[in-house]
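[step 3/7] inverse_fold.run input=structure_tokens len=274
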């Protein structure tokens, strides 16, 4: 009986100690390693050169997994292989999450490489001649951005009802210079700057091809919905490490790194309003 009483007492003490310890830690162990994911190129560089050093100053260890497509970063996030990713804009991640039954949320919008119109034939938009050929992306999201950029540049007019997920050249309602548009895969656009009159190149592909964003005839005035953002699983949004990511991206130190190492990147509205 004494041994049974002793074991029962010992068990009670152990359980009380465990519960007390759990309460002291809020029921969760403090997270000190953040697994990031980003596509190869400027956004992986942003994680490595701008986000990681500032998180390390807060005591985190940061690992960055590079991806070569736009499917796996969200799959890895949803599966728990990574904690956060940086590669996509709002329209893409919301459509992807809905289609694949994921619950994803954005933490913060980051400076993003804008699409630009590049040419070795012309030195200004105004110089583009009647009947010129411009190569453009054939995927609807990049195409929608292209059409808006070309409209802002005064080359075309587009329908007010452009759907960013279904955009096509049929949305062009006025084309005063009778420009011929050739649709190709977005990754091919940089090399076509040499062979065509002009090429509308998304920023990430321009940088991957070692193009200077500031060489563009015009850069898009990018709406924030098309800027990339840090994305996490919605269930993690209130975690301290997520709040710390947001805090360091909002810092003056982060903006200074962007100004020094990511010239030509368009800043989101929240950063312009600081």
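[step 3/7] decode complete -> sequence:
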């Amino acid at each position: 009986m004494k041994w049974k009483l002793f074991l029962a007492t010992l068990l009670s003490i152990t359980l009380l100690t465990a519960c007390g310890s759990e309460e002291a830690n809020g029921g969760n162990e403090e997270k000190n390693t953040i697994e990031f994911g980003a596509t190869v190129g400027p956004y992986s560089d942003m994680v490595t050169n701008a986000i990681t050093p500032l998180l390390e100053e807060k005591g985190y260890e940061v690992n960055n997994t590079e991806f070569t497509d736009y499917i796996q970063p969200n799959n890895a996030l949803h599966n728990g292989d990574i904690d956060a990713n940086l590669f996509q804009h709002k329209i893409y991640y919301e459509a992807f999450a809905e289609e694949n039954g994921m619950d994803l949320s954005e933490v913060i919008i980051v400076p993003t490489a804008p699409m630009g119109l590049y040419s070795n034939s012309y030195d200004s938009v105004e110089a583009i001649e009647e009947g010129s050929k411009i190569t453009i992306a054939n995927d609807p999201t990049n195409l929608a951005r292209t059409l808006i950029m070309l409209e802002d540049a005064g080359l075309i007019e587009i329908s007010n009802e452009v759907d960013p997920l279904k955009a096509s050249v049929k949305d062009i309602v006025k084309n005063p210079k009778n420009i011929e548009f050739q649709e190709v895969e977005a990754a091919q656009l940089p090399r076509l700057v040499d062979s065509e009159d002009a090429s509308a190149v998304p920023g990430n592909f321009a940088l991957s091809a070692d193009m200077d964003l500031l060489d563009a005839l015009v850069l898009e005035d990018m709406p924030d919905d098309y800027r990339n953002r840090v994305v996490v699983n919605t269930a993690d949004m209130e975690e301290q490490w997520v709040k710390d990511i947001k805090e360091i991206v909002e810092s003056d130190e982060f903006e200074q790194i962007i100004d020094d190492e990511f010239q030509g990147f368009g800043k989101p509205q929240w950063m312009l309003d600081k």
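[step 4/7] annotate
The first helix runs from residue 2 to 24.
The chain is about 35% helix and 20% strand.
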